[in-house]
Design a protein that fits this description.
Layout (H helix, E strand, L loop, with lengths): L1 H26 L17 E7 L6 H8 L2 H4 L2 E7 L5 H6 L5 E5 H9 L4 E9 L2 E6 L14 E4 L5 H12 L9 E4 L5 H6 L5 E5 L2 H6 L10 E6 L10 E8 H6 L1 H20 L1 H10 L7 H9 L8 H16 L9 H8 L8 H6 L20 H4 L14
Parallel strand pairs: 1-2, 6-7, 6-8
Antiparallel strand pairs: 3-10, 4-10, 5-8, 5-9
């Protein structure tokens, strides 16, 4: 039943909240969110940006290393936190701002978490796929089937639930969910342990790549966040800011948002350079090649209106899938979850120019299959999926 799915989702969030509250003081220092003043010596305003160490956080790392925060009058401090703590640390003032998954934060916002989305960073990295040798061709064909996911409550799981609910399938009653490590989802299909999988980049692209045994690839797309309406115009990750910090420091929040949006545009223009920077500066544990593969398959096209649309559409479909309360006013939720900031507009983004580096792009004729073993390794961090420790 939808009630069961909602209860499971809520219980997981409450557990994460308890963990975050217990270890917040030992891993991320809180500070008062009162109005900040520029340092009299540097003229820069201190701001703390949270991160986990994921591939898709490249705009944050690029903005730091390229001086985009400083250009906005900010002295940036990076605060590294674990996935399980992330929502609570942001809400309680452990850091001021970051960018993260829209779908991951909507349920906590519904429950009262005081955070706000301000702009979109990148579009879709999530897919639902089925074996090319099988008989599943449409979303409706998934009714009563087994779907493999990298974890309950992960972004691929949430996306699959949204897609199913939008097509009249009850995810809690009409689907069997099977959990496998992200790199073993294709193997689970081969062994007949699941009928379909939900995953993120770059695994989705790798599973579709043709090979000698499977000239059409291992899987076909059933739902693709990057190409299927309404998801193709929807932002997966968006800038999100602590509500009290925003109230007391609207200019700093707007400045930090602009720095990250410029970082996103720089990553889209120079994915290989961004990948190399993220690894060499030890922000993430990966190789430059693997990181570049993942970044090159994302769409870092920052947008304000796109983020607002993502919040609106995700709210609607998450309620339809039973992941939000039946009495929740999704229009009110979406309005509470998003805020427009002065100087942060689509017009400003359109006029924004970034440098295009000579060796910043993927080479022509690149073959993702050359890196199959490394991509499927349990040690590889795929887009928007944290590693449990």
């Amino acid at each position: 039943m939808k009630r069961k799915l909602k209860d499971l989702f809520s219980a997981a969030l409450r557990l994460c909240g308890c963990i975050g509250l217990l270890i917040l003081t030992s891993s991320c220092d809180r500070r008062d969110s009162a109005a900040l003043k520029p340092d009299p010596k540097t003229g820069l305003t201190k701001i703390r940006v949270g991160y986990i160490g994921l591939t898709c956080e490249a705009p944050i790392f690029s903005a730091v290393e390229n001086g985009f925060f400083k250009e906005e009058g900010l002295d940036v401090e990076l605060v590294r936190c674990q996935w399980a703590q992330y929502k609570d640390v942001l809400a309680l003032g452990g850091f001021d701002i970051t960018h993260h998954l829209v779908m991951y934060f909507l349920k906590p916002i519904e429950l009262g978490l005081d955070v706000k989305f301000t702009a979109g960073i990148h579009r879709g990295c999530l897919r639902v796929q089925a074996a090319t040798r099988g008989n599943i061709h449409t979303i409706e064909d998934l009714r009563g089937k087994r779907i493999g996911v990298p974890g309950m409550g992960t972004p691929p799981f949430v996306f699959a639930n949204r897609v199913l609910g939008a097509h009249g399938i009850d995810p809690s009653r009409e689907i069997q969910w099977k959990v496998f490590p992200a790199g073993e989802l294709g193997l689970a299909l081969d062994k007949g342990l699941v009928d379909a999988v939900a995953n993120s980049e770059p695994i989705g692209t790798l599973l579709m790549a043709p090979n000698a045994q499977e000239p059409q690839g291992k899987v076909r797309n059933i739902a693709d966040q990057a190409t299927d309406p309404p998801y193709k115009d929807e932002y997966c990750c968006a800038v999100i800011v602590n509500g009290k910090f925003l109230k007391n420091n609207p200019r700093a929040a707007a400045a930090a948002t602009r720095a990250m949006l410029k970082g996103a545009k720089w990553v889209n223009t120079n994915p290989v350079s961004a990948a190399r920077l993220s690894v060499e500066k030890k922000y993430i544990l990966s190789s430059p090649e693997l990181n570049a593969i993942a970044l090159s398959h994302l769409h870092y096209l920052p947008s304000v209106s796109g983020a607002k649309f993502a919040v609106d559409s995700a709210s609607q479909e998450m309620k339809q899938a039973g992941m939000l309360g039946p009495r929740t006013d999704v229009n009110e939720l979406a309005s509470r979850a998003f805020v427009h900031l002065d100087g942060v507009t689509d017009e400003w983004i359109d006029k924004l120019e970034v440098e295009k580096l000579v060796d910043g792009q993927m080479p022509p004729g690149f073959d993702i299959r050359q890196y199959a073993a490394a991509i499927l390794s349990p040690a590889n961090r795929n887009c928007c999926i944290g590693i449990k420790k």
